[in-house]
Description:
InterPro entries: DoxX-like (IPR025695). The chain is mainly α and about 130 residues long.
Amino acid sequence: MAERSIHIHKLLTYFIASVWLINGLVCKVLQLVPRHQQIVARILGEDYAPQLTRLIGFSEILLAGWILSFHQTRLCAWTQILLVVLMNAIEFVLAPDLLLFGRLNALYALLFVLLVYSNEFVFNSRPDSAKYV
């Protein structure tokens, strides 16, 4: 059973990192999904929206790297949970019309939070170690 849990944890970790990497690189840094910049403009203002969107994207890429480093995994999981909850709460209030699924995005954010939580606190039998490097 422990062996299976390790494999599930490893697969979920790669999946979670890929979500951050794709959203950061494709949607924000390369700006292939204009809706992301529109959300940033709505929340933080038009003047610096392109630069701030790219900065957010680079931060998400760094977060993907942190996830894949398997370093301080619990802190990393809590950081992801906090970021997802905060980002989605702000978007839910200030830009629901720009979200892919409108206010229903909150449900998908909750599911992602539950995935991150389960991956770290249910499937990770050896937290805070670089066991897969």
